[in-house]
Specification:
The protein contains 4 helices and 2 strands; from the N terminus they run αββααα. It is mainly α. The mean pLDDT is 78.
Length: 101
């Protein structure tokens, strides 16, 4: 999954000098688990979609779709582990009566 996301690319901050986003070349941190590496990028995707000022140059719809699909695939893979984290997430979803995070 990490390699799939690396192929999509993670944008960095908007740079007014070039009137575009500078992309960040993400690298796998071998001192962290696969989950930690992917989760860190999931947070970056979320921050870019929610907080980044995309008014200057919004992501193309196909790229946004790829990022959201990757995020959904990652979250679903976590649920399939039946780990304590996955079980707690399922409990929270049930309590809050929501389908997905």
């Amino acid at each position: 999954m990490f390699d799939e996301l690396k192929a999509i690319g993670i944008p960095g901050r908007y740079d007014g000098n070039i009137e575009d986003y500078r992309y960040v070349d993400i690298e796998f941190d071998h001192e962290k688990s696969v989950f930690e590496n992917c989760y860190r990028q999931l947070r970056t995707i979320r921050n870019n979609i929610i907080h980044a000022n995309k008014a200057y140059r919004p992501d193309p719809p196909e790229r946004l779709k790829d990022l959201l699909q990757w995020a959904q695939d990652f979250i679903e893979s976590v649920y399939q582990t039946n780990s304590p984290l996955a079980e707690r997430a399922k409990e929270i979803k049930e309590i809050l009566k929501i389908e997905n995070f």
